[in-house]
Amino acid sequence: MNDTRPTLTDMKKNLRDFASGLLDMHTPEIVQDDVQKLRQKQGFICDMDGVIYHGNKLLPGVLEFVDWLHKNDKRYLFLTNSSERSPRELAQKLGRLGLDVDESHFYTSALATAAFLKSQLLSPNDNASAYVIGEPGLFGAMYEAGYVMNEVNPEYVVVGETHSYSYDKIERAIRLVIDGAKLIATNPDLTGPSEGGISPACRALVAPIELATGKTAYYVGKPNPLMMRHAIKRLGVPADKTAIVGDRMDTDIIAGIESELDTVLVLSGVTSRKGVDEFPYRPHYILSGVGDIVG
Q1: Does some domain include residue 24?
Q2: Same domain, yes or no: 210 and 279
Q3: Where a domain ends, among 183, 202, 219?
Q4: Residue 41: alpha-carbon gap to chain centroid
Q5: Active site residues
Q6: What is the span of the domain harbouring residue 142?
Q7: What is the mean pLDDT of each run of 10 residues along the chain (295 residues)?
Q8: pTM (2 decimals)?
């Protein structure tokens, strides 16, 4: 006689199916009334990589979204954890992609990092210095904040995204941190979206320095409330009338939740629909892209 009792494998599969069903039940579904409420917001803080573009490719619906922002007199700020480019360079990049956006609408983790380090000066005349691993956007922000570059005995080692990462730079940074320099990173992103897929981001570049020195970097970018306070102040719109739009649960969405903003996750970047269920918090809205805000 055949044994019809379920096997351990069957029971495990049934449990997984049951759990998956529960997660699906609690996944937010966006209805038209919800989007109408979102459209009533006066201000929008938007991430860039994975929301506006991938590399040099503009994402679907972005032209319509930015046009909608202008036509409806919305206040908006592009808030990016990338430290590679200055606001002027970002404006020029969007211009090449067909968007006319003034540089005043951009705020980067490089600017937030430089502002934080400037606030650490005891006086405007302090001779502060840093060893910087990064791109022109970060170097420019550091110079504007009054810092000079120093490869011998700086107060800080500052790390941002760069395409010129090398063993020599890692080795120098490690030695400087061991000698007492404080380790600062522009943002905690481990990876970022690109035209070719996923690329290593700031935290991946800082990791070897942390591991070799036993020191943990101070990360300035999202979801650090420091950067969010700067962004909300620049936007000039109360938090309850502002929404943040991003593609990452671990930076954009948690930053919005902790700043008491309505949160919009777009599935055009890093976090997938299934990936939402890996986090203990939820966005207010889940959309395929920013074009869904316009309708």
Answers
A1: no
A2: no
A3: 219
A4: 21
A5: 47, 49
A6: 122-219
A7: 55 49 45 78 96 92 97 97 95 96 97 96 80 97 95 97 95 98 96 78 97 98 93 95 96 95 95 94 96 91
A8: 0.84
